[in-house]
Amino acid sequence: MNLKQKYKVRTWIVGVSAWGIALLLFFPILWMFLTSFKTELQAISSPPTLVFEPTLENFSLVQERSDYLKHAINSIVTSFGATILALLIAIPGAYAMAFYPGKRTKDLLLWMLSTKMLPAVGVLVPIYILFRDYGLLDTRIGLIIIFTMMNLPIVVWMLFSYFKDIPREILEACRMDGASPMGEVVKIVMPLAWGGIASTGLLSIVLCWNESFWSLNLTAADAGTLTSMIASYSSPEGLFWAKLSAASTLACAPIVAFGWLCQKQLVQGLTFGAVK
Questions:
Q1: Any idea what the Cα angle at residue 262 is, between residues 252 and 21, rounded to 5°?
Q2: What would the pLDDT profile of 66-100 be if each residue is shown by its tens digit?
Q3: CA distance to 20, 25, 73, 171, 201, per residue, from 249 (Å)
Q4: CB contact at 8 A, 88 and 200
Q5: Phi, psi (deg, nearest 5) at residue 243
Q6: What pTM does this model have?
Q7: Start-to-end CA span in the chain (Å)
Q8: What sign has the CA pseudo-torsion 32, 37, 39, 45?
Q9: What are phi and psi of 172, to 5 degrees?
Q10: β-pair partners for 238
Q11: Cα(21)–Cα(166) distance, integer angstroms
Q12: Is the sign of the CA dihedral 180, 102, 173, 197 positive or negative?
């Protein structure tokens, strides 16, 4: 076997392995999608029912019982609201740390990132009391605030990484022309790092959309998101697998479609720094 044949065999093995892993990862989503079209008896049958007559009854029941549209609007408002607020805070912060670093800038960045290691349940009680005293429980504004605080360290880190790649000479030339710090951010930094800002925003939206801990503990009927709607299908009587799958499919569909449309930017955001 010559080198060309060895290369083809190796490429074929890598390709088959990649498809195998991708199908393995995708299988739970496929199974959830198929289960959403089954009856409850078909969903819990053993061995699993592979050939069945699909029904849309579960989707109509989810809409009637849980008001899917209301939860979806709450998810959209809180995810986009928290992302916009996080970017408004993080862009000037990351700009200052990237172009005017101090002695403790790296320590500050590491401290911010370390807050992501803190279990959320460890600060649940004080945050719950604060939200109760300020009337933020079960409100979209309350969720936007907590989602913003939750993702701010990652957003700052990612923007800091993108801003560091901007040549300082461009900013120095801009300063010689009399630009103010705000002018540098708006006219130079943001246009040059627009791809990074978009990737960061997309990743933040996905993280907010998938968040469930704070949604379950800080919301109820008014501001509940799609993740809290899914959790409502777990009861002491057991799990209603078909309805749960229908609710999960409806909850995943918007963000999957959004991720598919923006997959290039998302991959760039998730692998930031890995190929530099």
A1: 65
A2: 788 888 899 999 999 999 999 999 998 998 888 88
A3: 23, 16, 16, 47, 24
A4: no
A5: -70, -40
A6: 0.79
A7: 36
A8: negative
A9: -65, -40
A10: 235
A11: 37
A12: negative
Q: Are 259 and 71 in contact, with CB atoms under 8 Å apart?
A: no
Q: CB–CB of 215/147 below 8 Å?
A: no
CB atoms under 10 Å from CB of 118, counted, come to 9
User: Of all helices (H) and strands (E), which one includes residue 238?
Assistant: strand 238-239
Q: Structure tokens of 173? A: 């030339």
- Identify the sign of the CA torsion 26, 32, 35, 40: positive
Q: Which two tokens stand for residue 32?
A: 């959830």
Q: Which two tokens stand for residue 211?
A: 């968040």
Q: What is the pLDDT of residue 274?
A: 46
Treating both helix axes as pointing N-terminal to C-terminal, what angle do 105-114 and 140-164 enclose, rounded to 10 degrees? 140
Question: What is the residue type of 58?
Answer: N
